[in-house]
Design a protein that fits this description.
Elements (H helix, E strand, L loop, with lengths): L11 E5 L8 H14 L4 E5 L6 H16 L7 E4 L7 H15 L2 E5 L6 H8 L3 E7 L2 H4 L3 E4 L4 E5 L1 H17 L4 E7 L6 H19 L1 E4 L5 H5 L10 H5 L6 H17 L15
Parallel strand pairs: 1-4, 1-5, 2-3, 2-4, 5-8, 8-9
Antiparallel strand pairs: 6-7
Helix pairs in contact: 1-2, 1-10, 4-6
């Protein structure tokens, strides 16, 4: 198996991964991409989900909007794995190699299922972002929980895969993976369930090795913006400040909070977005 040489590595790699569909991976990925672009980073994106291709469609919608509106909204250099272009893992290595050399950041969106390509992508992560819906159904992907005692019994298949890729990464180039689990689609209701989730996730973070951060709320605006290829971070520029409702402003703060929690790598000569200061 061919691996990239450590000497070719320059960019910081974000992998957005979870083996359960519907967790909000592509929404997290596009907001991460736009947030990074707005802060001045050079970004490449790689969509490894050749069947679903949600990130690719999101970026295609964005490209269409920019052209139709003669907008100056930023775009990443976007790449995708395709089924009709040979070995998927070899495609990924070639795309990643180019991204590492030519950009500050590479954001990789992975499929919502297990597979060799997803595992390979995880092994190159500097930062792994795993969105989960704030429910014990989604939590089961990460750990087996004793419902009577609300205690973590052990890691599940996805956590075991991440642990394997962490070891592979360390053996390959001495690097490490900062694993971030973001609690997505938090609801203001059912406070008891939220407290139980928080306690179990805290236990899991200690035992399995991850950081827990707040994610994105369950908001209609995130779904509505998909067709235009926009994110909540674009709305002020695309529609004007007057278009931002209190709910929109709260959603923007959620995204800013997520990006800050991720702890972005320093790139000489870049200044932070003043909106986030």
């Amino acid at each position: 198996m061919r691996f990239l040489k450590p000497s070719t590595k320059a960019a910081h790699v974000f992998v957005v991964g979870n083996e359960k569909g519907g967790s909000g991976k592509s929404t997290a990925a596009i907001h991460l991409i736009v947030g990074l672009l707005q802060r001045g980073y050079s970004v490449a994106s790689i969509d490894t989900d050749s069947r679903q291709g949600t990130l690719s469609r999101y970026l295609a919608n964005r490209r269409t909007f920019i052209k139709a509106a003669a907008s100056d909204l930023k775009m990443p250099d976007a790449y995708a794995i395709t089924l009709d272009n040979g070995d998927e893992t070899e495609q990924f290595r070639l795309l990643l190699e180019g991204g590492l050399i030519n950009h500050d950041i590479v954001v990789v969106d992975t499929p919502g299922s297990a597979g060799a390509l997803s595992s390979l992508a995880h092994s190159y992560a500097d930062t792994l972002v795993t969105p989960i819906n704030d429910s014990f159904v989604d939590l089961d992907v990460l750990a087996h929980v004793d419902g009577a005692r609300m205690a973590v019994m052990g890691p599940s298949h996805y956590s075991e895969m991440v642990w394997t890729q962490k070891k592979l990464r360390a053996e390959r180039d001495g690097g490490s993976i900062d694993w971030i689990v973001m609690r997505n689609r938090l609801s203001s209701l059912d406070a008891h369930n939220k407290r139980q989730m928080e306690e179990v996730l805290g236990d899991m973070a200690t035992r399995i090795g991850m950081r827990i951060v707040p994610g994105l709320g369950k908001r209609v605006i995130f779904r509505e913006l998909f067709l235009a290829g926009l994110t909540i971070l674009d709305l002020k520029d695309a529609a004007g400040p007057q278009a931002l409702s209190p709910s929109h402003l709260a959603a923007r703060e959620e995204v800013f909070g997520l990006i800050d929690a991720i702890q972005l790598p320093d790139v000489p000569g870049l200044s932070r977005n003043p909106e986030t200061e």
